[in-house]
């Protein structure tokens, strides 16, 4: 609704830290979670089979990427 109206306050996050992303890739390998070449971590998270126990472990590990969230007010064009 806010995006359509062109005004609001959005929850924003900076890009994932490269070292944290590399660590998560290693954890995916250790847990047997597929991470295709060139796939963004958001794509990997979206494709997970939520019925598998290893998915719960991987999702817990993935929370390490979600640091530095903030609120960003905008009027007109939304923030990147």
Q: What integer is the average pLDDT?
A: 92
Number of domains: 1
Task: Give the total of beta strands.
Answer: 2
Order of helices and strands: HEHHHE
In which order are the strands of the major sheet placed?
1-2
Strand composition percent: 15-25%
Unreliable stretches (pLDDT < 50, length at least 5) are none
Largest beta-sheet details: 2 strands, antiparallel
From the spread of the alpha carbons, the general shape counts as elongated
Number of helices: 4
Helix content: 40-55%
How much is the radius of gyration in Å?
16 Å
Which class of secondary structure composition applies to the elements? alpha+beta
Q: How many angstroms does the end-to-end distance come to?
A: 17 Å
Quick summary:
This protein has helices spanning 2-5, 18-31, 41-46, 53-62, and strands at 7-12, 70-75. It has 80 residues and is an alpha+beta fold. It has one domain.
Walkthrough of the structure:
It is a single chain. By secondary structure, this protein is of the alpha+beta class. The protein has one domain (2-75). It contains four helices and two strands, in the order αβαααβ. A two-stranded antiparallel ribbon has the order 1-2. The two termini are 17 Å apart. The relative contact order is 0.27.
